[in-house]
Amino acid sequence: MTAEIRNDVIVATEDIKAPPEVVIPYFTNPALIVEWIGNRAELDRRPAACSSSTGRGRRPRCLHRRRAAVPRSVQLGHLSGCNPLAPGASTVEVALTPDADDTMVVLTHRGLPSTHVGNHRAGWEHRLGRLLVAAG
């Protein structure tokens, strides 16, 4: 797993030992989302609908606006539940690329203030590590 910061943009990658068809539900199915990113998730599958996940604490960890979902790609607009970012302040895009029998996950998080980039980088490293265990 690697997570790099490029001009205040986080680019995190993880090689999952499963095909994209197995991995994408971990971004679109609330029952699977909670296995790697929180303890509660709600998802409205309509374009531009909202979903949320609640972390291990009492307050929501993050809320996401799903802007589009196409095969092998999910784009989420990152909204904030427990950190001081305004709703819609940043965007998370996830691309799933087949690699033989595996999936390369590339997560790109844009629009964060520079003071939040380091913490979010660490958070994505942790979460993608949990995704590796859950989906792999």
Explain this structure.
- With 136 residues, the protein is an alpha+beta fold.
- The protein has one domain: Alpha-D-Glucose-1,6-Bisphosphate, Chain A, domain 4.
- It has four helices and eight strands.
- It has helices spanning 20-23, 25-28, 30-33, 114-135, and strands at residues 2-6, 9-16, 40-43, 49-54, 60-70, 73-80, 90-99, 102-110.
- An eight-stranded antiparallel beta sheet has the order 1-2-8-7-6-5-4-3.
- A hairpin with a 5-residue loop joins strand 4 and strand 5 (60-70).
- It is globular and about 35 Å long.
- The protein starts with a strand and ends with a helix.
- The model is unreliable at 48-55, 57-73 and 77-82 (pLDDT under 50).
Keyword list:
4 helices; alpha+beta; single chain; 136 residues; Alpha-D-Glucose-1,6-Bisphosphate, Chain A, domain 4
Helical proportion, percent range: 25-40%
Per DSSP, the total helix count is 4
Report Rg.
Answer: 14 Å
Q: What is the CATH-assigned architecture?
A: 2-Layer Sandwich
Report the CATH topology name: Alpha-D-Glucose-1,6-Bisphosphate, Chain A, domain 4
Spans of at least 5 consecutive residues with low confidence: 48-55, 57-73, 77-82
Structural class estimated from helices and strands: alpha+beta
Number of domain modules: 1
Name of the top-level CATH class: Alpha Beta
Query: Per the principal axes of the C-alpha atoms, what is the gross shape?
Result: globular
Order of helices and strands: EEHHHEEEEEEH
